[in-house]
Specification:
253 residues; binds S-adenosylmethionine; seven-stranded mixed beta sheet
Length: 253
């Protein structure tokens, strides 16, 4: 598929989702912030510790979507630039920033990860959730390296694509909160290597082995027993890590 066709199909899909969410944006409760949120979200395990304080930092939210993380990072005092291909998603992000009274800390740009309109070394921190696997690594990865300052940190939480059973489920089974499948491809270890090129430190952490079953259940219920079992299994049997649902990748430039 040509790159413009990829963009077109992604834009249409995410614009439509954004339009449906327009009325579902509220102010966060007092004391909300990204680091606090990330500490309690299994998909962002280790992210808060890796990034550290966001106060005054120039942060880039990679493929920000509806801006939930953009706004939480601004609530922590970061100066957040966020980009996305989907104009309607950015409109929702702007609305969320305004409702939360932090518009002055947020700057939004329609852009593709393959061609970023930011100068070299513009950001102290890059954060992305479920975005790298939508991009073409060969042309996007040099852009990531370019816009991050030397000594800067990038961290991504992405679907991992090494578990054949999970790949089948992702393609063919309907479950709660499932995003429509498009050009995106959950990351393989080979992809992670491509994204890591040129960084001085690379940290890879696989998350959710058995506890991925939580995702299939309609309720928001958490199962601490499953998470404890995961911790035990993943520590004790490292070969199981590849079968996890999510991977968090921390990169130091
Ligand atoms: C799964 S959503 C994740 C959104 C957000 N990061 C979050 O965690 O809620 C993927 C996002 O990537 C955006 N996207 C897809 N391909 C892109 C590209 N090539 N460049 C920039 N954004 C892209 C989509 O518009 C969509 O908002």
């Amino acid at each position: 598929m040509m790159i413009e066709e990829r963009y077109q199909s992604e834009r249409e899909k995410w614009d439509e989702i954004a339009q449906e969410k327009w009325d579902e944006i509220y102010a966060y409760p007092p004391d909300s912030g990204f680091l606090r949120y990330a500490s309690g979200d299994i998909g962002l395990t280790g992210v808060a510790e890796f990034i550290g304080s966001l106060k005054g930092k120039r942060v880039l939210d990679y493929g920000c979507g509806l801006g939930a993380m953009t706004v939480l990072m601004a609530l922590d005092g970061a100066k957040v630039t966020a980009f996305d291909l989907s104009r309607d998603s950015l409109a929702v992000t702007a609305r969320r920033a305004s409702i939360n009274n932090i518009s002055s800390l947020v700057s939004l740009t329609v852009a593709a990860g393959e061609n970023l309109p930011f100068a070299e070394g513009s950001f102290d921190v890059v954060f992305g959730r479920s975005i790298l696997h939508h991009l073409v690594p060969k042309i996007s990865q040099p852009e990531l390296c370019r816009v991050l300052k030397k000594g800067g940190k990038a961290v991504f939480s992405e679907p991992l694509g090494m578990n054949p059973v999970l790949s089948f489920v992702r393609k063919h089974v309907r479950y709660a909160d499932k995003n429509p499948v498009g050009v995106d491809q959950p990351l393989t270890y080979e992809d992670i290597l491509k994204w890591s090129r040129g960084f001085s430190e690379v940290h890879v952490r696989e998350i959710q082995l058995i506890s991925m079953l939580e995702r299939g259940l309609k309720s928001q219920k958490k199962f601490p027993g499953l998470r404890r079992l995961d911790n035990y299994l993943l520590r004790r049997f490292s070969f199981l890590r590849r079968y996890c649902r999510i991977v968090v990748i921390g990169l130091l430039k």
